[in-house]
Protein backbone atom coordinates (compact mmCIF):
# COMPACT_ATOMS: atom_id res chain seq x y z
CA UNK A 1 0.00 0.00 0.00
CA UNK A 2 1.29 3.44 -0.96
CA UNK A 3 0.71 4.89 2.49
CA UNK A 4 3.30 2.47 3.87
CA UNK A 5 5.86 4.01 1.52
CA UNK A 6 4.98 7.70 1.39
CA UNK A 7 2.99 8.49 4.53
CA UNK A 8 -0.53 9.34 5.65
CA UNK A 9 -1.47 11.51 2.65
CA UNK A 10 -1.30 10.09 -0.87
CA UNK A 11 -2.17 11.94 -4.07
CA UNK A 12 -4.09 9.22 -5.91
CA UNK A 13 -5.17 11.41 -8.84
CA UNK A 14 -4.35 14.95 -10.03
CA UNK A 15 -7.17 16.39 -7.92
CA UNK A 16 -7.59 13.72 -5.22
CA UNK A 17 -5.94 13.17 -1.84
CA UNK A 18 -6.30 10.00 0.22
CA UNK A 19 -5.82 10.22 4.00
CA UNK A 20 -4.86 6.99 5.76
CA UNK A 21 -5.70 8.16 9.26
CA UNK A 22 -8.68 7.62 11.52
CA UNK A 23 -8.19 11.03 13.11
CA UNK A 24 -9.04 12.67 9.79
CA UNK A 25 -12.21 10.63 9.19
CA UNK A 26 -14.55 12.94 11.20
CA UNK A 27 -12.95 15.96 9.52
CA UNK A 28 -13.78 14.53 6.08
CA UNK A 29 -17.02 12.62 6.64
CA UNK A 30 -18.52 14.34 9.69
CA UNK A 31 -21.86 16.13 9.42
CA UNK A 32 -20.20 19.55 9.83
CA UNK A 33 -17.42 18.95 7.30
CA UNK A 34 -17.22 21.63 4.60
CA UNK A 35 -17.54 19.07 1.81
CA UNK A 36 -20.14 17.43 -0.38
CA UNK A 37 -20.12 14.28 -2.45
CA UNK A 38 -17.85 14.61 -5.46
CA UNK A 39 -19.47 15.08 -8.87
CA UNK A 40 -18.02 11.75 -9.98
CA UNK A 41 -20.59 9.92 -7.84
CA UNK A 42 -23.22 10.44 -10.54
CA UNK A 43 -21.65 7.43 -12.30
CA UNK A 44 -23.06 5.20 -9.54
CA UNK A 45 -26.64 5.82 -10.62
CA UNK A 46 -28.32 4.11 -13.56
CA UNK A 47 -29.44 7.55 -14.73
CA UNK A 48 -27.34 10.62 -15.49
CA UNK A 49 -30.17 12.90 -14.32
CA UNK A 50 -31.86 10.95 -11.54
CA UNK A 51 -29.64 10.16 -8.53
CA UNK A 52 -30.07 7.38 -6.02
CA UNK A 53 -29.44 7.69 -2.29
CA UNK A 54 -25.77 6.80 -2.83
CA UNK A 55 -25.00 9.10 -5.76
CA UNK A 56 -27.08 12.15 -4.82
CA UNK A 57 -24.94 15.25 -4.26
CA UNK A 58 -27.62 17.60 -2.86
CA UNK A 59 -27.56 17.24 0.93
CA UNK A 60 -31.25 18.04 1.48
CA UNK A 61 -32.40 15.48 -1.10
CA UNK A 62 -30.03 12.92 0.38
CA UNK A 63 -31.45 13.53 3.85
CA UNK A 64 -34.97 12.82 2.54
CA UNK A 65 -33.90 9.63 0.76
CA UNK A 66 -31.94 8.40 3.76
CA UNK A 67 -34.76 9.12 6.24
CA UNK A 68 -37.13 7.15 4.03
CA UNK A 69 -34.90 4.08 3.88
CA UNK A 70 -34.04 4.32 7.58
CA UNK A 71 -37.66 3.41 8.42
CA UNK A 72 -37.04 -0.05 6.98
CA UNK A 73 -34.22 -0.76 9.39
CA UNK A 74 -35.66 0.47 12.69
CA UNK A 75 -35.35 -2.17 15.41
CA UNK A 76 -39.10 -2.77 15.46
CA UNK A 77 -39.23 -3.32 11.70
CA UNK A 78 -36.22 -5.64 11.83
CA UNK A 79 -38.13 -7.86 14.27
CA UNK A 80 -41.04 -8.03 11.83
CA UNK A 81 -38.90 -9.07 8.86
CA UNK A 82 -36.57 -11.45 10.70
CA UNK A 83 -38.75 -14.50 10.01
CA UNK A 84 -38.70 -13.75 6.28
CA UNK A 85 -34.91 -13.53 6.38
CA UNK A 86 -34.53 -16.73 8.39
CA UNK A 87 -36.74 -18.57 5.90
CA UNK A 88 -34.18 -17.74 3.18
CA UNK A 89 -31.26 -18.69 5.43
CA UNK A 90 -32.86 -22.09 5.99
CA UNK A 91 -32.91 -22.52 2.21
CA UNK A 92 -29.19 -21.70 2.21
CA UNK A 93 -28.31 -24.29 4.86
CA UNK A 94 -30.52 -26.89 3.15
CA UNK A 95 -28.59 -26.28 -0.08
CA UNK A 96 -25.25 -26.82 1.66
CA UNK A 97 -26.47 -30.23 2.81
CA UNK A 98 -27.52 -31.35 -0.67
CA UNK A 99 -25.70 -33.50 -3.19
CA UNK A 100 -25.12 -32.34 -6.77
CA UNK A 101 -28.62 -33.52 -7.72
CA UNK A 102 -30.17 -31.25 -5.10
CA UNK A 103 -31.26 -34.13 -2.86
CA UNK A 104 -30.11 -34.36 0.79
CA UNK A 105 -26.92 -36.28 1.48
CA UNK A 106 -28.26 -39.39 3.22
CA UNK A 107 -25.16 -40.66 4.97
CA UNK A 108 -24.44 -38.59 8.06
CA UNK A 109 -20.70 -39.24 7.96
CA UNK A 110 -20.26 -38.43 4.27
CA UNK A 111 -18.91 -35.14 3.00
CA UNK A 112 -20.86 -33.36 0.29
CA UNK A 113 -19.39 -32.30 -3.03
CA UNK A 114 -17.11 -29.22 -2.98
CA UNK A 115 -19.28 -26.09 -3.05
CA UNK A 116 -18.03 -22.82 -4.60
CA UNK A 117 -19.05 -20.56 -1.72
CA UNK A 118 -19.46 -17.35 -3.69
CA UNK A 119 -22.53 -18.74 -5.46
CA UNK A 120 -24.79 -19.69 -2.52
CA UNK A 121 -23.74 -16.55 -0.64
CA UNK A 122 -24.81 -14.45 -3.63
CA UNK A 123 -28.06 -16.35 -4.08
CA UNK A 124 -28.98 -16.01 -0.41
CA UNK A 125 -28.34 -12.26 -0.28
CA UNK A 126 -30.23 -11.57 -3.50
CA UNK A 127 -33.16 -13.75 -2.39
CA UNK A 128 -33.39 -11.80 0.87
CA UNK A 129 -33.15 -8.28 -0.54
CA UNK A 130 -35.50 -9.02 -3.48
CA UNK A 131 -38.13 -10.31 -1.04
CA UNK A 132 -37.72 -7.27 1.21
CA UNK A 133 -37.82 -4.91 -1.79
CA UNK A 134 -40.61 -6.36 -3.93
CA UNK A 135 -42.27 -8.94 -1.63
CA UNK A 136 -41.21 -11.40 -4.30
CA UNK A 137 -37.96 -13.32 -3.93
CA UNK A 138 -35.72 -14.08 -6.91
CA UNK A 139 -35.63 -17.66 -5.55
CA UNK A 140 -32.03 -18.21 -6.67
CA UNK A 141 -31.36 -20.78 -3.95
CA UNK A 142 -33.93 -23.12 -5.47
CA UNK A 143 -34.05 -22.17 -9.15
CA UNK A 144 -31.29 -21.34 -11.68
CA UNK A 145 -33.55 -19.02 -13.70
CA UNK A 146 -32.22 -15.73 -12.30
CA UNK A 147 -28.73 -16.76 -11.24
CA UNK A 148 -27.30 -14.50 -13.94
CA UNK A 149 -28.20 -11.43 -11.86
CA UNK A 150 -25.15 -11.43 -9.49
CA UNK A 151 -22.76 -11.63 -12.44
CA UNK A 152 -24.35 -8.58 -14.07
CA UNK A 153 -24.12 -6.69 -10.78
CA UNK A 154 -20.40 -7.45 -10.69
CA UNK A 155 -20.19 -5.87 -14.16
CA UNK A 156 -22.11 -2.84 -12.88
CA UNK A 157 -19.68 -2.50 -9.97
CA UNK A 158 -16.68 -2.71 -12.30
CA UNK A 159 -18.11 -0.18 -14.74
CA UNK A 160 -18.97 2.22 -11.87
CA UNK A 161 -15.44 2.02 -10.49
CA UNK A 162 -13.89 2.71 -13.91
CA UNK A 163 -16.09 5.79 -14.32
CA UNK A 164 -15.44 6.95 -10.76
CA UNK A 165 -11.67 6.74 -11.21
CA UNK A 166 -11.70 8.32 -14.69
CA UNK A 167 -14.71 10.67 -14.88
CA UNK A 168 -14.05 11.60 -18.52
CA UNK A 169 -15.02 8.06 -19.53
CA UNK A 170 -18.45 8.69 -18.03
CA UNK A 171 -18.80 12.31 -19.14
CA UNK A 172 -17.97 11.47 -22.77
CA UNK A 173 -20.00 8.23 -22.68
CA UNK A 174 -16.90 6.24 -23.58
CA UNK A 175 -18.02 3.39 -21.35
CA UNK A 176 -20.49 2.50 -24.10
CA UNK A 177 -17.50 1.84 -26.38
CA UNK A 178 -14.69 0.74 -24.07
CA UNK A 179 -16.97 -1.52 -22.04
CA UNK A 180 -19.36 -2.37 -24.88
CA UNK A 181 -20.05 -5.98 -23.89
CA UNK A 182 -20.60 -5.12 -20.23
CA UNK A 183 -22.66 -2.07 -21.15
CA UNK A 184 -25.00 -4.20 -23.24
CA UNK A 185 -25.49 -6.62 -20.32
CA UNK A 186 -26.08 -3.75 -17.90
CA UNK A 187 -28.68 -2.08 -20.14
CA UNK A 188 -30.50 -5.39 -20.56
CA UNK A 189 -30.53 -5.97 -16.79
CA UNK A 190 -31.66 -2.39 -16.17
CA UNK A 191 -34.60 -2.89 -18.52
CA UNK A 192 -35.51 -6.12 -16.74
CA UNK A 193 -35.44 -4.38 -13.33
CA UNK A 194 -37.53 -1.52 -14.73
CA UNK A 195 -40.26 -3.97 -15.72
CA UNK A 196 -40.21 -5.49 -12.23
CA UNK A 197 -40.44 -1.99 -10.78
CA UNK A 198 -43.55 -1.15 -12.81
CA UNK A 199 -45.15 -4.49 -11.93
CA UNK A 200 -44.54 -3.96 -8.21
CA UNK A 201 -45.72 -0.35 -8.37
CA UNK A 202 -48.97 -1.42 -10.02
CA UNK A 203 -49.77 -3.62 -7.00
CA UNK A 204 -49.73 -0.64 -4.65
CA UNK A 205 -49.07 -0.87 -0.92
CA UNK A 206 -49.38 -4.34 0.57
CA UNK A 207 -50.82 -3.89 4.10
CA UNK A 208 -50.24 -7.53 5.02
CA UNK A 209 -46.62 -7.80 3.94
CA UNK A 210 -44.93 -4.43 3.87
CA UNK A 211 -41.82 -4.14 1.75
CA UNK A 212 -39.35 -1.40 0.89
CA UNK A 213 -41.41 -0.37 -2.14
CA UNK A 214 -44.41 0.30 0.10
CA UNK A 215 -42.34 2.70 2.17
CA UNK A 216 -40.84 4.43 -0.88
CA UNK A 217 -44.20 4.82 -2.62
CA UNK A 218 -45.69 6.47 0.48
CA UNK A 219 -42.73 8.78 1.11
CA UNK A 220 -43.04 12.52 0.66
CA UNK A 221 -40.75 15.33 1.80
CA UNK A 222 -42.98 17.88 3.54
CA UNK A 223 -40.42 20.65 3.01
CA UNK A 224 -39.75 20.23 -0.70
CA UNK A 225 -42.63 18.07 -1.91
CA UNK A 226 -40.18 15.47 -3.23
CA UNK A 227 -41.58 11.99 -3.76
CA UNK A 228 -40.69 8.80 -5.59
CA UNK A 229 -41.96 8.56 -9.15
CA UNK A 230 -41.58 5.44 -11.29
CA UNK A 231 -38.08 6.37 -12.44
CA UNK A 232 -36.98 7.13 -8.86
CA UNK A 233 -38.29 3.75 -7.71
CA UNK A 234 -36.43 2.05 -10.54
CA UNK A 235 -33.15 3.85 -9.79
CA UNK A 236 -33.38 3.07 -6.07
CA UNK A 237 -34.29 -0.58 -6.64
CA UNK A 238 -31.17 -1.10 -8.76
CA UNK A 239 -29.09 0.28 -5.89
CA UNK A 240 -31.01 -1.64 -3.22
CA UNK A 241 -30.22 -4.94 -4.92
CA UNK A 242 -26.52 -4.04 -5.05
CA UNK A 243 -26.24 -2.55 -1.57
CA UNK A 244 -28.42 -5.20 0.05
CA UNK A 245 -26.97 -8.22 -1.71
CA UNK A 246 -23.48 -7.69 -3.15
CA UNK A 247 -22.05 -6.12 0.00
CA UNK A 248 -23.33 -8.80 2.40
CA UNK A 249 -22.52 -11.72 0.12
CA UNK A 250 -18.93 -10.51 -0.29
CA UNK A 251 -18.47 -10.39 3.48
CA UNK A 252 -20.17 -13.76 3.98
CA UNK A 253 -18.03 -15.46 1.34
CA UNK A 254 -14.89 -13.96 2.88
CA UNK A 255 -15.92 -15.15 6.37
CA UNK A 256 -16.21 -18.73 5.13
CA UNK A 257 -12.80 -18.38 3.46
CA UNK A 258 -11.02 -17.16 6.58
CA UNK A 259 -12.62 -19.77 8.82
CA UNK A 260 -11.73 -22.56 6.38
CA UNK A 261 -8.12 -21.37 6.29
CA UNK A 262 -7.82 -20.95 10.07
CA UNK A 263 -8.66 -24.24 11.75
CA UNK A 264 -8.22 -22.96 15.30
CA UNK A 265 -10.70 -20.14 14.72
CA UNK A 266 -13.15 -22.51 13.02
CA UNK A 267 -12.97 -24.99 15.91
CA UNK A 268 -13.38 -22.23 18.51
CA UNK A 269 -16.38 -20.70 16.74
CA UNK A 270 -18.05 -24.07 16.09
CA UNK A 271 -17.72 -24.97 19.77
CA UNK A 272 -19.18 -21.61 20.85
CA UNK A 273 -22.21 -21.91 18.56
CA UNK A 274 -22.99 -25.49 19.54
CA UNK A 275 -22.61 -24.74 23.24
CA UNK A 276 -24.93 -21.72 23.01
CA UNK A 277 -27.83 -23.15 21.00
CA UNK A 278 -29.69 -26.43 21.45
CA UNK A 279 -31.74 -26.35 18.23
CA UNK A 280 -31.68 -24.70 14.81
CA UNK A 281 -34.87 -22.77 15.56
CA UNK A 282 -33.20 -21.05 18.53
CA UNK A 283 -30.65 -19.41 16.26
CA UNK A 284 -31.96 -15.90 15.69
CA UNK A 285 -31.14 -12.43 16.98
CA UNK A 286 -31.52 -11.99 20.72
CA UNK A 287 -29.65 -12.48 24.01
CA UNK A 288 -28.21 -15.88 23.05
CA UNK A 289 -26.86 -14.58 19.76
CA UNK A 290 -25.48 -11.51 21.50
CA UNK A 291 -23.57 -13.79 23.88
CA UNK A 292 -21.63 -15.33 20.96
CA UNK A 293 -18.70 -12.96 21.30
CA UNK A 294 -16.30 -15.03 19.23
CA UNK A 295 -18.81 -15.09 16.37
CA UNK A 296 -18.97 -11.31 16.49
CA UNK A 297 -15.17 -11.16 16.57
CA UNK A 298 -14.91 -13.37 13.47
CA UNK A 299 -17.41 -11.20 11.58
CA UNK A 300 -15.65 -8.01 12.67
CA UNK A 301 -12.30 -9.44 11.61
CA UNK A 302 -13.70 -10.35 8.20
CA UNK A 303 -15.16 -6.87 7.68
CA UNK A 304 -11.84 -5.36 8.76
CA UNK A 305 -9.89 -7.35 6.16
CA UNK A 306 -12.52 -7.17 3.41
CA UNK A 307 -14.67 -4.05 3.82
CA UNK A 308 -17.65 -4.23 1.47
CA UNK A 309 -16.80 -0.78 0.07
CA UNK A 310 -12.99 -0.90 0.15
CA UNK A 311 -11.95 2.09 -1.95
CA UNK A 312 -11.71 5.79 -1.27
CA UNK A 313 -15.11 7.47 -0.98
CA UNK A 314 -14.37 10.98 -2.32
CA UNK A 315 -15.75 14.25 -1.00
CA UNK A 316 -15.41 17.60 -2.81
CA UNK A 317 -14.11 20.50 -0.70
CA UNK A 318 -16.45 23.52 -0.78
CA UNK A 319 -15.81 27.27 -0.83
CA UNK A 320 -13.58 28.37 2.03
CA UNK A 321 -11.53 25.18 2.03
CA UNK A 322 -11.05 22.73 4.88
CA UNK A 323 -8.30 21.73 7.29
CA UNK A 324 -7.67 17.99 7.47
CA UNK A 325 -4.96 16.52 9.67
CA UNK A 326 -3.51 19.98 10.13
CA UNK A 327 -3.23 20.54 6.37
CA UNK A 328 -5.27 23.20 4.57
CA UNK A 329 -7.09 21.81 1.53
CA UNK A 330 -8.52 24.39 -0.94
CA UNK A 331 -11.92 24.38 -2.60
CA UNK A 332 -12.44 21.90 -5.42
CA UNK A 333 -10.08 19.16 -4.25
CA UNK A 334 -11.43 15.65 -3.72
CA UNK A 335 -10.48 14.05 -0.40
CA UNK A 336 -11.31 10.76 1.30
CA UNK A 337 -10.14 7.60 3.03
CA UNK A 338 -9.90 4.02 1.81
CA UNK A 339 -11.38 1.68 4.41
CA UNK A 340 -9.19 -1.14 3.09
CA UNK A 341 -5.93 0.70 3.80
CA UNK A 342 -7.20 2.22 7.04
CA UNK A 343 -8.21 -1.08 8.60
CA UNK A 344 -4.97 -2.77 7.55
CA UNK A 345 -2.83 0.02 8.98
CA UNK A 346 -0.19 -1.39 11.32
CA UNK A 347 -0.37 1.71 13.51
CA UNK A 348 -3.89 0.70 14.54
CA UNK A 349 -3.89 -3.08 14.23
CA UNK A 350 -1.32 -5.69 15.23
CA UNK A 351 -0.72 -8.29 12.52
CA UNK A 352 -2.77 -6.09 10.18
CA UNK A 353 -2.97 -8.57 7.30
CA UNK A 354 -3.82 -11.64 9.39
CA UNK A 355 -7.23 -13.05 10.29
CA UNK A 356 -6.90 -12.92 14.08
CA UNK A 357 -10.27 -12.71 15.91
CA UNK A 358 -8.42 -12.72 19.23
CA UNK A 359 -7.47 -9.09 18.62
CA UNK A 360 -11.00 -8.20 19.78
CA UNK A 361 -10.44 -9.55 23.32
CA UNK A 362 -8.10 -8.20 25.99
CA UNK A 363 -5.29 -10.70 26.53
CA UNK A 364 -1.97 -9.19 27.68
CA UNK A 365 -0.16 -12.49 27.08
CA UNK A 366 -1.19 -12.36 23.42
CA UNK A 367 -0.25 -8.70 23.24
CA UNK A 368 -3.81 -7.34 23.31
CA UNK A 369 -3.99 -4.64 25.98
CA UNK A 370 -7.04 -2.57 26.94
CA UNK A 371 -5.41 0.34 25.12
CA UNK A 372 -4.75 -1.56 21.87
CA UNK A 373 -8.29 -2.97 21.90
CA UNK A 374 -9.78 0.49 22.47
CA UNK A 375 -7.75 1.85 19.54
CA UNK A 376 -8.86 -0.98 17.24
CA UNK A 377 -12.50 -0.45 18.21
CA UNK A 378 -12.17 3.29 17.60
CA UNK A 379 -10.73 2.82 14.10
CA UNK A 380 -13.05 -0.03 13.07
CA UNK A 381 -15.72 1.45 10.79
CA UNK A 382 -16.73 -1.09 8.11
CA UNK A 383 -20.04 0.67 7.46
CA UNK A 384 -18.49 4.09 7.00
CA UNK A 385 -18.94 7.22 9.10
CA UNK A 386 -21.20 10.24 9.26
CA UNK A 387 -24.50 11.05 7.51
CA UNK A 388 -23.53 8.95 4.47
CA UNK A 389 -22.74 5.76 6.39
CA UNK A 390 -24.50 2.51 5.48
CA UNK A 391 -28.19 2.78 6.38
CA UNK A 392 -28.76 -0.98 6.13
CA UNK A 393 -26.04 -2.21 8.46
CA UNK A 394 -28.53 -3.90 10.82
CA UNK A 395 -29.78 -6.09 7.97
CA UNK A 396 -26.22 -7.11 7.08
CA UNK A 397 -25.41 -7.84 10.74
CA UNK A 398 -28.50 -10.04 11.10
CA UNK A 399 -27.75 -12.00 7.91
CA UNK A 400 -24.12 -12.61 8.80
CA UNK A 401 -24.73 -13.67 12.40
CA UNK A 402 -27.66 -15.99 11.75
CA UNK A 403 -26.22 -17.54 8.57
CA UNK A 404 -22.81 -18.36 10.04
CA UNK A 405 -24.28 -19.60 13.33
CA UNK A 406 -26.84 -21.86 11.65
CA UNK A 407 -24.29 -23.26 9.21
CA UNK A 408 -21.82 -24.19 11.95
CA UNK A 409 -24.58 -25.54 14.19
CA UNK A 410 -25.77 -27.93 11.47
CA UNK A 411 -22.55 -28.85 9.68
CA UNK A 412 -18.91 -29.67 9.99
CA UNK A 413 -16.97 -27.75 7.36
CA UNK A 414 -13.60 -28.22 5.66
CA UNK A 415 -11.53 -27.31 2.63
CA UNK A 416 -11.74 -29.96 -0.09
CA UNK A 417 -8.88 -32.45 0.10
CA UNK A 418 -6.10 -31.46 -2.24
CA UNK A 419 -6.73 -27.72 -1.87
CA UNK A 420 -3.40 -25.88 -2.04
CA UNK A 421 -3.62 -24.51 1.50
CA UNK A 422 -5.28 -27.55 3.08
CA UNK A 423 -2.17 -28.56 5.01
CA UNK A 424 -0.35 -25.25 5.22
CA UNK A 425 0.46 -23.51 8.48
CA UNK A 426 -1.54 -20.44 9.37
CA UNK A 427 1.29 -18.07 8.44
CA UNK A 428 1.58 -19.56 4.96
CA UNK A 429 -2.09 -19.35 4.06
CA UNK A 430 -3.20 -16.87 1.45
CA UNK A 431 -5.38 -13.83 2.00
CA UNK A 432 -8.87 -13.61 0.55
CA UNK A 433 -8.59 -12.74 -3.13
CA UNK A 434 -11.11 -10.10 -4.18
CA UNK A 435 -11.57 -7.29 -6.67
CA UNK A 436 -12.02 -3.84 -5.17
CA UNK A 437 -14.58 -2.41 -7.57
CA UNK A 438 -17.31 -0.04 -6.33
CA UNK A 439 -18.26 -3.00 -4.12
CA UNK A 440 -15.88 -5.80 -3.14
CA UNK A 441 -16.23 -8.86 -5.35
CA UNK A 442 -14.31 -12.09 -5.08
CA UNK A 443 -14.31 -15.69 -4.08
CA UNK A 444 -13.47 -18.81 -6.00
CA UNK A 445 -12.86 -20.89 -2.87
CA UNK A 446 -14.71 -24.14 -2.25
CA UNK A 447 -15.89 -25.89 0.88
CA UNK A 448 -17.25 -29.29 1.83
CA UNK A 449 -20.00 -29.82 4.40
CA UNK A 450 -21.03 -32.81 6.49
CA UNK A 451 -24.11 -32.89 8.69
CA UNK A 452 -23.32 -33.18 12.40
CA UNK A 453 -23.30 -36.81 13.51
CA UNK A 454 -25.02 -36.00 16.82
CA UNK A 455 -28.05 -34.27 15.24
CA UNK A 456 -31.19 -36.30 14.68
UniProtKB/TrEMBL annotation:
A biological process term (GO) from this entry: mycotoxin biosynthetic process
SUPFAM superfamilies: Cytochrome P450 (SSF48264)
Requisite cofactors: heme
Amino-acid positions noted as binding heme in the UniProt annotation, renumbered to this chain: 390
The entry's keywords: Heme, Iron, Metal-binding, Monooxygenase, Oxidoreductase
Pfam families: p450
Keyword Metal-binding included in the entry's annotation: yes
MF-aspect GO terms: heme binding; iron ion binding; monooxygenase activity; oxidoreductase activity, acting on paired donors, with incorporation or reduction of molecular oxygen
Keyword DNA-binding attributed: no
Source species, domain of life: Eukaryota
PROSITE patterns documented for this protein: CYTOCHROME_P450
Family the UniProt entry places it in: Belongs to the cytochrome P450 family.
Protein name: Cytochrome P450
Taxonomic lineage from the root: Eukaryota, Fungi, Dikarya, Ascomycota, Pezizomycotina
